[in-house]
Design a protein that fits this description.
Length: 170
């Protein structure tokens, strides 16, 4: 447990890099982002069918755990071209050191995006970014964060994700 808490503690204090580019401060942490995704999945579990929501919540909670080792790497970062390789190595180390082998399979499932649960978790990732951009624009007048919303909109794949996006936009 001690090793796992060391990794997750880092995520509680690791800022989401994309928002820093826009001089937003304070900025949400990686852990806050993952928590919000998991809360969305929990809310959906009460009314939606066709998904294993326990799995979706697990995917949401662990999809960024590798960032506790490698940091939050965005597409504008030079290391982005090698992100998959270095993140995979980090996940392997975290799983081993935390004695949680399940982390490797959950991360792989999320990254492959082939299961309905992984697709939904990926959509929740984008929906959180979309909602966060709206929240920051309210708090920081004059900030244009529409590029985050445009990116999110293009990436959403599931019908449920598209429906949720329409609700957030309304």
């Amino acid at each position: 447990m001690k090793k796992l808490l060391e990794y997750t503690a880092k995520l509680k204090h690791l800022p989401r890099t994309g928002w820093l580019r826009y001089k937003i401060s304070p900025v949400e942490s990686v852990a806050a982002h993952s928590w919000q995704m998991a809360m969305m999945a929990l809310k959906l579990s009460a009314s939606e069918e066709g998904y294993d929501f326990e799995k979706v919540i697990k995917l949401c909670l662990c999809h960024d755990i590798g960032e506790s080792v490698i940091g939050d790497i965005t597409p504008s970062d030079v290391r982005y071209k090698n992100k998959q390789d270095i993140e995979q190595k980090a996940i392997e180390d975290i799983a081993k050191n935390s004695q949680m082998p399940e982390l490797e399979s959950l991360f792989a499932e999320y990254e492959r995006g082939e299961t309905s649960e992984a697709k939904l978790a990926n959509d929740l990732d984008k929906l959180d970014m979309y909602a966060q951009s709206l929240d920051y624009e309210k708090k920081y007048k004059g900030k244009d964060l529409s590029e985050f919303r445009q990116s999110a909109k293009k990436a959403i794949k599931t019908e449920l994700g598209k429906r949720l996006l329409r609700e957030i936009e309304a």
